[in-house]
Write a structure and sequence with these properties.
Blueprint lengths: L23 E4 L2 E4 L7 H13 L2 H9 L26 E2 L2 E2 L1 H16 L6 E5 L6 H10 L11 E5 L4 H10 L5 E6 L6 H16 L4 H7 E5 L2 H7 L6 E3 L16 H7 L1 H20 L6 H16 L3 E7 L6 H13 L16 E3 L11 H6 L6 E6 L9 H21 L16 E6 L4 H22 L10 H16 L12 H12 L2
Parallel strand pairs: 5-6, 5-7, 7-8, 8-9, 10-11, 10-12, 12-13
Antiparallel strand pairs: 1-2, 2-13, 3-4
Helix pairs in contact: 4-9, 9-10, 10-15, 11-15, 12-15, 16-17
Bound molecules: 6-O-phosphono-beta-D-fructofuranose.
Length: 510
């Protein structure tokens, strides 16, 4: 790793090279500049008062202390323990969870050491069992000097066989390893894809012994993984106190360690741990996740914003907005609060993609559309390749990022209404010193802690996701009706008239 700051706490602005812009804050060497939020010092002081009135400091303390802040499921949200490299005790219901966590680290490291002759890894999982490791594998592949085993890493999430077919066309069955990742081990996409991959191994004459050697599982439902036929010593557990979308720090991140080495995985955890220490200990006024959360809250109050965008000016982070969508919208996309009463605010729609590509897509709407959409511009100081052109290209990348933020903030007048930019469009600038495992970990933990802060401010439980269940339940009778092949399906208690017509149309054309 090329640079790694003191992970203990907030760094003052003076510790950084060069003078920091006015209105900027820093932690773990990540700089957050809120100058274009249009929030003056009185507004900020009201926002921090509001945070204290909402008992945010107590919430943060409770979260790290393992209190059951996920009340609907009567659990804590202790993903921070998964990256607690200090190994200080984390007591959950009277018991320290760290021995179990460190045992999994030891097993991951041991597996890395005996991982030889593997050409392909098929990682099967969806949602939180997919986005985190996929983002990290993609992002770290762009780190110029990273050590990599260079295996083909395939991520199989969708039940659509297009993805399955593409992967199985490329993988070499005799040297493939399969990691089935599912917290519940009941997710239909994952279990069906896993069965399909096992069938492919069999069809390619892999023996029982070879298949047993190839299969691994990462789950909180160890009995189900055993039942599937995974050997005990190939099952890596995690726990119900880790939400799926917060799970990349567990053995869900196994591909990171296998591809880039255990040390890199540790650095990823270290960056996140450093950000946790900052979030836990820094005063609210210097606390990056808190400041970002309050800025969003301000824009909701002031402009009634209903969407916001995260634009990483780094191709390596192209998967970041997808990861963030699940994090924010699955955590906080809720209409009722912890007390069961309607909430005033909840998660806006989150979207984004890598800049500068995004400028040539939907930025028109940011500049001149009727809605105000706050943006997080995320930039990296150092170029992300060792190409001879990298410095020159990187300057252009950064200048685009800075120019967009400035144009959005100030706008432009013109006699021709078509050429008027209204301006006053708020944005943050987040600046990472470089892209490596450490800072990637810090970035993800920053947003995780921001999501938790927003939940606390909105009085939302950020750690359950009851809204995703209903559609899954309804899919069962619909699948049955499709399987019947009948084009005479009539509406009943589980299939309404519109859906019955759609099923009949699909069946009549099959
Ligand atoms: O459907 C939503 C969800 O439950 C997510 O919360 C989760 O990340 C994903 O499905 C996958 O779940 P599992 O890891 O249990 O397969």
């Amino acid at each position: 790793m090329s640079s790694k700051p003191d992970s203990n706490n907030v760094r003052s602005t003076q510790n950084l090279h060069g003078s920091m812009p006015n209105g900027a804050h820093t932690a773990v060497d990540v700089v957050l500049d809120t100058a274009y939020q249009g929030i003056d010092s009185n507004n900020w002081s009201d926002l921090f008062k509001l945070a204290r009135k909402s008992e945010l400091p107590d919430f943060i303390a409770d979260m790290f202390a393992g209190k059951h802040i996920n009340q609907s499921e009567d659990r804590p949200a202790l993903h921070s323990a998964l990256r607690n490299l200090s190994k200080s005790p984390v007591i959950l219901d009277g018991q320290d969870v760290m021995p179990a966590v460190t045992d999994v680290w030891r097993r991951i490291e041991a597996l890395c050491n005996k991982w030889v002759g593997v050409t392909d890894v098929i990682h099967i999982g969806i949602g939180g069992s997919d986005f985190g490791p996929r983002l990290a594998i993609e992002a770290l592949a762009h780190v110029p000097d990273i050590e990599s085993r260079g295996m083909r890493m395939h991520f199989l999430a969708n039940i659509d066989t297009a993805e399955l077919a593409r992967i199985l066309d490329r993988a070499q069955p005799n040297s493939t390893r399969v990691i089935i990742v599912s917290k519940s081990f009941t997710t239909l996409e994952t279990t069906m894809n896993a069965k399909a991959v096992v069938a492919w191994l069999k069809d390619n004459n892999c023996t029982k012994g070879q298949i047993a050697k190839a299969l691994f599982a990462v789950t909180a439902n160890v009995p189900a993984a055993k039942e599937f036929g995974i050997a005990d010593d190939h099952i890596f557990p995690f726990w119900d106190w880790v939400g799926g979308r917060y799970s990349v720090w567990s053995a869900v991140g196994l591909p990171i360690a296998l591809q880039y080495g255990f040390k890199t995985f540790e650095e990823f955890l270290a960056g996140a741990h450093a950000m946790d220490l900052h979030f836990k200990n820094a005063p609210l006024e210097n606390n990056l996740p808190v400041i970002m959360a309050l800025a969003l809250l301000y824009q909701q109050e002031k402009h009634g914003i209903e969407a916001y965008a995260a634009i990483p000016y780094a191709d390596a982070l192209d998967w970041f907005p997808k990861w963030l969508q699940q994090l924010d919208m699955e955590s906080n996309g809720k209409s009722v609060g912890k007390d069961g009463k309607p909430v005033k605010y909840s998660s806006p729609v989150v979207f984004g993609s890598a800049g500068s590509n995004a400028q040539h897509s939907y930025f028109q709407l940011f500049h001149q559309g009727p809605e105000i959409i706050p943006i997080d511009f995320i930039a990296v100081r150092k170029p992300m390749s060792a190409r001879p052109e990298s410095e020159a290209h990187h300057r252009i990348l950064l200048s685009n990022c800075l120019a967009q933020a400035q144009a959005l903030a100030h706008g432009k007048t013109d006699n021709n209404p078509n050429n008027v930019y209204p301006g006053k469009r708020p944005s943050n600038l987040l600046l990472l010193p470089e892209l490596n495992a450490f800072y990637l970990g810090a970035l993800l933990a920053l947003y995780e802690n921001r999501a938790a802060t927003l939940g606390a401010l909105w009085n939302i439980n950020s750690f359950d996701q009851p809204g995703v269940e209903y559609g899954k339940v309804l899919a069962k009778p619909i699948e049955k009706a499709l399987a019947s092949g009948s084009d005479q399906v009539v509406a009943n208690e589980s299939v309404d008239a519109i859906t019955a017509e759609r099923i009949n149309f699909l069946n009549s054309n099959s």
